[in-house]
TrEMBL record:
GO terms for biological process: negative regulation of proteasomal ubiquitin-dependent protein catabolic process; negative regulation of protein K48-linked deubiquitination; negative regulation of protein ubiquitination. Residues 54-81, 161-181, 194-222 are annotated as: Disordered. This is 4187_t:CDS:1. GO terms for cellular component: cytoplasm; nucleus. Residues 59-75 have a biased composition (Polar residues). It comes from Paraglomus occultum. Signal peptide: none annotated. InterPro entries: Znf_C2H2_type (IPR013087).
Length: 222
């Protein structure tokens, strides 16, 4: 059975029935005129576009079949922009020693310095952005750490100053002791030299006196 012929016959039947209703409408009830006009208008519209509807329906069906067929064919093919295995982009750095993730190389480097861990690798795991509350907490934590570092640095500087002052005092005391010892040695040398000079002076006087006595004896013997 031809679908197109049956469709047109149905439309013509509707038009004929509606037209008959219009002819007898004034006799039965004047109030059904608008309703009949609506049906008649709809029937003529369907009849005038019957071929278009069939063509569009056929086109849509064929297009739908083609799309379905095409999509079924491409399901096994790689979609445009799809990332292949091994092409994943690194989203973070992972410490293989403790499995912690870091946003960038600077944070990973700080972790390495602090922990002594040395094994790192790229990771495709993306670290979710911090919330505003988490950002405020991180900033507060950073400020607290910086304040603690400054406090420890001041304590260390004070300890260094105390140690330097102790060394200076010790050095000064040792220097004074060394000076005193040097002075003592110089004084001892001076005393020894003076004593030696006196002994030499006495020996010289004794030689002179002995020579005088010898001269006297020599004159007496003549």
């Amino acid at each position: 059975m031809n679908f197109e012929v049956s469709w047109k016959e149905t439309v013509m039947s509707v038009v004929t029935t509606t037209t008959t209703t219009i002819l007898y409408a004034p006799i039965v009830n004047d109030g059904i005129g608008p309703l009949v006009n609506f049906h008649l208008s709809s029937a003529f519209r369907l009849f005038s576009h019957a071929d278009d509807d069939l063509d569009e329906t056929s086109g849509e069906t064929a297009s739908g079949t083609a799309i379905a067929s095409g999509s079924g064919t491409n399901t096994t093919e790689q979609e445009e922009g799809e990332i292949k295995a091994g092409e994943e982009t690194a989203q973070s750095l992972k410490c293989d020693d403790c499995q912690r993730l870091f946003r960038d190389a600077a944070m990973a480097e700080r972790h390495a310095i602090k922990s002594g861990h040395v094994n790192f690798s790229e990771s495709t795991t993306a670290i979710k952005p911090l919330t505003e509350e988490e950002k405020r907490e991180k900033i507060a934590e950073l400020k607290e750490r910086l304040a603690e570092k400054r406090r420890l640095k001041l304590v260390e500087e004070k300890e260094d100053e105390k140690l330097k002052e102790k060394i200076r005092r010790k050095s000064g005391k040792e220097l004074n002791e060394a000076r005193e010892k040097l002075q003592e040695r110089e004084m001892e040398k001076a005393l020894l030299l003076k004593k030696k000079e006196k002994e030499e002076e006495r020996a010289a006087k004794a030689r002179v006196k002995a020579q005088i006595e010898q001269d006297k004896r020599d004159r007496a013997a003549k």
